[in-house]
Write a structure and sequence with these properties.
By secondary structure, the chain is an alpha+beta fold. It has a single domain, classed as Gcn5-related N-acetyltransferase (GNAT) (Aminopeptidase), CATH 3.40.630.30. Helices cover 31% and strands 41% of the residues. The chain has helices at 12-22, 29-37, 82-96, 111-119, and strands at 2-6, 42-49, 52-62, 65-73, 101-107, 123-132, 135-143. The chain has a seven-stranded mixed β-sheet, sandwiched between helices. Strand 3 (52-62) and strand 4 (65-73) form a beta hairpin. The protein is globular. The structure holds coenzyme A. Coenzyme A is lined by residues 22, 55, 71-73, 78-84, 106, 110-113, 115-116, 119. Coenzyme A binds at residues 22, 55, 71-73, 78-84, 106, 110-113, 115-116, 119.
């Protein structure tokens, strides 16, 4: 059964593996360690099954605003609902902390991610032309 829980430092190697298998420009262990250390302003959640980490999400927040910094599922585990569970759990947890607006930025050609964000009521509010080389960046906002 899939469990969703906060990330700990012990999860760092597994999170790095997700980063490396998922992103062309993965975060380093140091960047992730820094984020996990700043607990008052960061929320990191992972989805695991039988001790195996399959996906994770990292939010940064301050006062009533937050930002989704990372969301990734291992390629073999995508389209199983993990991304949606992480995002919904994270938004609920942030709302409980008084966060009522969450922003994110996504490449215009990232169909699966855009589909997921729009399904969860994120609204596209701006376009950054050629933010990713030839590809535009979209800014999305969620209000809870
Ligand atoms: C975006 C991402 C995190 C989604 O994670 P996931 O665990 O596959 O998400 P879910 O299984 O919850 O899928 C959510 C929705 O996206 C859709 N989706 C997932 N993979 C898809 C794909 N390859 N093509 C089209 N739609 C897809 C699902 O169908 C689902 O919608 P539905 O329930 O209406 O069918 C994952 O694709 C990923 O890790 N991508 C690479 C990293 C990335 O781009 N992160 C986002 C950066 S902004």
């Amino acid at each position: 059964m899939i469990e969703v829980r906060p990330c700990t430092f012990a999860d760092l190697p597994a999170l790095i593996r997700v980063e490396q298998e998922t992103f062309a420009h993965p975060w380093t262990k140091e960047s992730l360690h820094t984020a996990l250390s700043a607990r008052e302003t960061h929320l990191a959640l992972l989805a695991a099954e039988e001790g195996q980490v399959f996906a994770y999400a990292l939010f940064q927040y301050l006062l009533d605003e937050g930002e989704l910094w990372r969301l990734a599922s291992l390629p073999a585990q995508q389209n199983r609902g993990l991304g949606q569970r992480l995002l919904e759990t994270g938004l609920d947890a942030l709302q409980a902390k008084g966060v009522h607006r969450v922003f994110l930025e996504v490449a215009a050609d990232n169909g699966p991610a855009i589909h997921l964000y729009e399904k969860l009521a994120f609204e596209r509010i701006a376009v950054r032309p050629n933010y990713y080389g030839q590809t535009d960046g979209y800014i999305y906002r969620w209000e809870g």
